[in-house]
From TrEMBL:
Entry GO CC: membrane
Family: Belongs to the peptidase S33 family.
GO biological process: proteolysis
Active-site residues annotated for this sequence: 125, 269, 296
Domain AB hydrolase-1 as annotated: residue spans: 48-302
InterPro entries noted in UniProt: AB_hydrolase_1, AB_hydrolase_fold, AB_hydrolase_sf, Peptidase_S33, Pro_imino_pep
UniProt-listed PANTHER family: HYDROLASE, PUTATIVE (AFU_ORTHOLOGUE AFUA_2G14860)-RELATED, MONOACYLGLYCEROL LIPASE
Gene Ontology molecular function: any one: peptidase activity
Organism: Wenzhouxiangella limi
NCBIfam families: pro_imino_pep_2
Domain of life: Bacteria
Record key words, sorted: Hydrolase
Record protein name field: Proline iminopeptidase-family hydrolase
Amino acid sequence: MTTLTEYLDYSNAPDQLTGGVRRIPISTPKGEFSVWIKRVGNNPKIRLLLLHGGPGATHELYECFDGYLPTEGIEYIYYDQLDSYYSDQPRDPDLWTIEHFVDEVEQVRQALGLNPDNFFLYGQSWGGMLALEYALAHQQHLKGLIISNMVSDVQGYNRYAREVLGPQMDPAVFAEIRQLEANEDYENPRYEELLMQHHYTEHVLRMPLDEWPDSILRTFKHLNKDLYVHMQGHSEFGMTPNATLGRWNRSADLPKIQVPTLTIGAAHDTMDPKHMEWMAGQVQHGRYLHCPNGSHLSQYDDRQHFFPGLVQFLRNVDDGKF
């Protein structure tokens, strides 16, 4: 068990002066760049690398982890992917691919010295897609995998948005959203207004907009919209058809995942929680964590279930009791 003194000790570490912040060089076919990371704490057995959503969002999505994981002695590492706000931004769409981001995560892993004795990978939303893709390519380096608030089939995500969540809205609102989408009028301010008031506050973060945490407001402010639209589309209300992730489907590959895996779903999520539960049964060693009060950002709106479940998984895997 790591003591509090050991956990907080940054002495003689290369990132002591910066409080855990450093930049990691990344090699790409388009040149050399760097990405921003911040390490919090020391734990040689549990090192949790955080993959943010978007694509094109930031590590700020996870700032609430500071209020929960240090007391558990868990080391975690914030990380802004290339072209996200705190990292280099070459803004080259040729790099906006799953293959690039998987390779980037692997370069980050190597730079940080993460290995099967300590490397837990957490991804939420797009980060969950990336975590799954990384595991399919490099699971020999993992100790555990966490896929949060992301299904394994984009078409299932789209169906859930259109057939389940949409009809829960006021019919006039849902009809107006569908019409704006049919017209591809995504830049119309009315489109964002409708989604923020009737979808995001119900299924992305279940708080009134004026109560959203500053970390989430900064994430939206810092979003790389070009990257987001290119890969995901124009909103969290399903993927836009021409987005590059629009046909992504890894459901058939889930049984290949051998490492202990936690999937996290929420009752009010943009993703179908039943699908998240199904995924836990498809991998070889899976567990499902349900957040009954949560939505897409359940670390904020159902932290009472999210953090105890996440910590228990990390502890169980570390103790060999998973």
